[in-house]
Specification:
The protein has about 850 residues and is mainly α. Helices cover about 60% and strands about 5% of the residues. Helix 8 runs parallel beside helix 10 and helix 37 (about 710-725) crosses helix 41 (about 800-830). The longest helix is centred in the last third of the chain and has 27 residues, at about 800-830. It is elongated and about 115 Å long. The termini are far apart.
Amino acid sequence: MAEHFATYFAHRPDRCHVMVTRAPARKRIGGLADYTPGTVWQRDVIEGVTVGDIAQAVDRALAAYPSGGPHVFIDKIETESAASDLNRQLQAAAANPLQDVLKRCDARYILVVSLPLHQTLSVLPEYPGAVRLPWTAFWLEAFARTNGLDAETLRDDLGQALNAAELLLTRAELSHERTLYLELERVGAAAEDGAASATQWNAEIRRAIENASSPTVPTHGELTRIDEIMTDSYRSASLGLIGQTLLILFAFTDKLHHDEALRLVHFCLPDEDIPDELMSPVMRARYERQCEDAVRRYGDRPLRPSWSERLDDGAPGLLEALGLRRDAENILRARLGLVDVGIEVGKGRVALAALADRLLGRKALERAIQRFPLHESRQDVRPRLVELLCGLHRHRILSAEDLASVLVGLKADAHEPIVPVEVVAEERVRLGFADDDQHVMVGDVMRHVMAENEENPTAERRQPRELDDHFRTGAARHVQHLIAQAMHHLPAEHGVFTKLLEWLEQRMQFETAWRILGFFSLYGPQPEPVTFGRIVLAPFRDAGRDGFNAALRELRDLILEVMKAATSNKPDQPEVVGAWLDAVWSAVPEADAPRAARGLAIYLDDFITQSEILWEIRDLDDPRPKRPLLARLFLAELAPSPSPDLIRRLFARTPRDWLKSLAEVEKAGGQRPALQLAVHVQDRLDDVFHVIVQDIHVAEAKQRAFNLDSASLRDQFWRDIARALDLPAFNAGTVHKHVLEARDKLPGQTRHDLLALMDLYPIAVFLFWRFGMWSPAPLAKDSPEDRAYTACLERAVAGLAQERRQALHRASVALAFAAEQLNQRFERFGMTKTHAHHQQRVRRIQRLAQHFAPLPAPVPARAR
């Protein structure tokens, strides 16, 4: 066998291989690989693998042990479907990074998929090019070693017959191979129950080969038995709820020990009387004797025996009645492997729902949870209860909210972690650092919280997701509380929350990870800024053009949802928006930041600051709108904590650097970018216009026949701006083209000065905040409002370079001039209310311009 294995690889040119086999061969694959040339690396995989995971594992291995090739990397996995997605990727991976990695280091990759008892080789068509790895020789060798038989003699007598039976090439082959495996497993189980001679075992194995000569299927009796157990809670042969509960635990847990199973059944049974027909003879006689004694003594009738007492009374034939057995290590096994017990048990939804109700202390699935079994249970059964509850969730008996609610009931003592970590392999997340297991299940729960949308994409397309609705659920709140518990019981330097976020980013689609960030930024705990920013920027790092554009559009939608939630919450949370921006900027200098990271950060500054500016005239008779969210954050006497510097960034950036950084974002989007720089520039200039024109008394304007057409007002506004900045005349509708042309021109060249138009935007944003917070009337001197406004402005301009102060002064003077010219038109039309309102606004803009006046030049010491 080993020589065939080596020969196979010597003649196969491809580097990625999928092998389908059974457990005996999977256990010995490492020994086979020793016959291949080069260094062998192998691992047992729990949850399945991806191309990226394989490539990273290969790189890490070669970095740690940089020996020369060739190399053979082997992943062994025992599961039903984990390989299907990987294999599709492998078959189409001719130009993928995995092929490049393997070729570069002269390596091959083998995925060994070990099929479970109930599955046939019918999965082979799912794996084009997959190879079936023979396994009977390994089974025979292990059987001889376990039973003290001579392996060479058995191989001479049975090896050829077993090999021929396994490799039978007929149309019935797929089910034949499974039947052979089951028959041999039955022989192995019989060997555990008692010894026999080599001749007897030889005959048993030949009988197994004969029984497998024709395809077999689960008998009607096997399927009927499980169905009866799951539908009849008072079935006498399986002790009603006792056998039903034990069978569910066997189906939903992994390698369940017999004694452990009995403890779990005790915990899961109801505190109710057992029916007469399920009492054992001894129990019935004892109960009848107690009743007679009570009558004779005129005492109270004794309590009827409970389900737990019936279990304590003994049930010697229960395992056989359930189709189960105990192996040499007292682990429960299926006596007959022709059926998948998990699938068949999962069909008994009524029994599963009843068990869930008993565990959670409620009368029906739609009722509230009354107790938390993990909190109430003994420590030695909690890990298995986690497996059971996760299994009930997978079968849609428990919702994500229920699961999170149950887990949040855990409480820690001095010796016990917050949550149990010995959970079933399918549910456990292996993080790679042993001391951080406290938050293993936190990640699992968050995955379950997100699963409802992932599992129902059709409903998700019908109804747009809104972050506030999506996360303001009981489940998310429970997860939040669970994480807070874990952080409370761990030292701050432990970094549990940061590592949880990094785990989410590595294992979830970026949209999901971002939405979780959105929830935590709103409701806590607050992510660490650099980690926060790194997760936001991660999807842009290696994205192609389509991926880059999709990520940018998703990020814009998410930020709008965050702002909506921050505005609708009580109290408002303006600091959340500042935290998103500061987090992205904190990650820009990181070594792994995407090339367009600075441009993305600048774009997000623009996107958020413009999001509240409406392109419509506001009637002065309308109620005053809600104060802008960002204005409430920045127009404060004390700097926000942590101190966001959004307004300072807006004032400090030069138009040339601003546009150059945004051009990187546009370039990353290809021919149809999500950010079109020309449109972006035109939109920011339109924002400036709408901030200045914003408030008009509409009834007065109609009475005076004032033209409210924004196009007419816009043309006049930009003509006034051009006059104030001493710029050549330009068309308001095409000004963005001239600005982009000016970006690449040197000072003194034609139309270079048009770049100064971009300095109008940060001034307009600040004015929007000022007029959105308070009326345009002067603020009372030394009032809280005046101190907040002055302090914010001083923080924003402190330390600005002299040339930036000059540019901002020039822009604010131009805006004051254009606003004054507009107000003179209101006066000429006799619009007294509008004129009075805008007269106050003009004065505030003029006062603002004084703050940007260039500082006096320092006087030389000798001249003083």
